[in-house]
Amino acid sequence: MTGYEIIRSYTLYLNTRQANTGNSDNCTFLFSTPIILTNANNRFLVSTPMVELPYSFSQVNSTNYNLPYSYTDTNGAGHSFNSTTMNIPEGNYNINALQTQLIVSLLADILIYVPTSTLSASNFVFSYNAQTGSTTMTMTGLAYTVSITLTFSLSYVLGIMNGFPQTNQTFGTAITIVSPNKVMVNPITSVYIRSDSLKFQNNYEAIVPAPGGGSSYQNSDVVCKVPVTTLPNSIIYYRNDQKSMISNKFIPDLNLYVSDNLSSTYTLDMQGVNYGICIQFDEIQLKPNNAYKDTITAPVLSPPQALLQQRDHLLEELLAQREKLEKEIEEQKKLNQQEVKQVQEKQAELKSPAI
Fold it and tell me: Per the structure, how many domains does the chain have?
């Protein structure tokens, strides 16, 4: 942003453990001395020069751990049901651990609806191809037919973690499915630190998936976006010089809360671990623009042809006079040289002895 002068800066070094209310997920700091514009016509710019964010959150969390499914088999009289209670425990997984947990969660949930089920982990054949980055799901070793449909249309995150788009997928004893996409077991690629205390003027964001489906482009309260560039249980160090304009003229407190890049619920569980952040408020004076300062001058008319001819004639006369003067100067130089030579010859005769 250009066209302004910084009048005063306020730098706040905050740690969520020192917040007056809330926790590391959502907290509020109360300022003993409010931050106030010295001139009501000025504005505040907010920036986050430094963030120290622990990677304490889980990729599978309370907003995305549920995976509905439907089940059908031909064992005995046959069984068929739809379940919305199958969950993947919260945590961070690699693809092999995620596939193992998916089998365990399916078996446990199927037993709720079919207590006499004889299914075991050996009947599920889930594999990962490291070369292609895709997964395969099928079933084997059963004397009867089993069909399971995973409702990824209602579980966007678990779908992309397993390499499937947001469409339902069916596998079973006679059905093998291969994920069309590469797996991404770490879909939370950034953390947003937000504030509902600040009134941003020109911040917008696209929420995908939006509430109710589709996409949404709306005003944003994002203070900064922190890319996740480390491994779980480490610290993400982030520097940022981007400044955003806010319309607040009086800041008595500051609320901060966190979300990820996947959920539209604006909640991210930091597992009780606090983080540090440096926030800077710059009071700026906007420089005046150029409105109404443009001037329109009278058009310059080209000179008449007669004046141009007169100019050319004068130039020719000046050049002729210059040439004449140069010749006269040259002739005078020659005369001067001759006179000097004659004087030197006479001096030489006078000095020579008489014979």
Answer: 2
Nearest Cα residue to 187 out of 85, 100, 92: 92
Place of tokens 């910084």: 6
The pLDDT of residue 320 is: 82
Closest listed residue to residue 87, CA positions, set 113, 111, 60: 60
**Residue ranges, the chain, pLDDT below 70:** 1-2, 207-217, 288-305, 307-308, 351-355
Domain of 163, in residue numbers: 69-178
166 and 98: one domain? yes
Instruction: Give the bridge partners for 14, in sequence order.
Output: 277
Looking at 242, 258, 286, the residue that finishes a domain is: 286
In this prediction, residue 265 carries a pLDDT of: 73
Q: Is residue 133 part of a domain?
A: yes
Domain-embedded: residue 124 = yes
In a domain, residue 140? The reply is: yes
Task: Note whether 163 and 234 are same-domain residues.
Answer: no
Q: Render pLDDT for 234-263 as a digit per residue (tens, 0 to 9).
A: 999 999 889 999 999 999 999 999 999 887
Tell me the one-letter amino acid at 131. Q
CB 301 within 8 A of CB 74: no
User: In 3D, which of 38, 71, 22, 43 has the Cα closest to residue 286?
Assistant: 43
133, burial (CB in 10 Å: exposed 0-12, middle 13-18, buried 19+): middle
Q: What is the pLDDT of residues 75-109, one digit of tens each?
A: 999 999 999 999 999 999 999 999 999 999 999 99
How many other CB atoms are found less than 10 A from the CB of residue 297? 5
Beta strands in the chain (DSSP E): 4-15, 21-22, 26-36, 43-54, 69-73, 79-83, 124-129, 134-139, 146-150, 169-172, 177-178, 190-194, 204-207, 216-219, 222-227, 235-239, 244-246, 250-260, 276-286
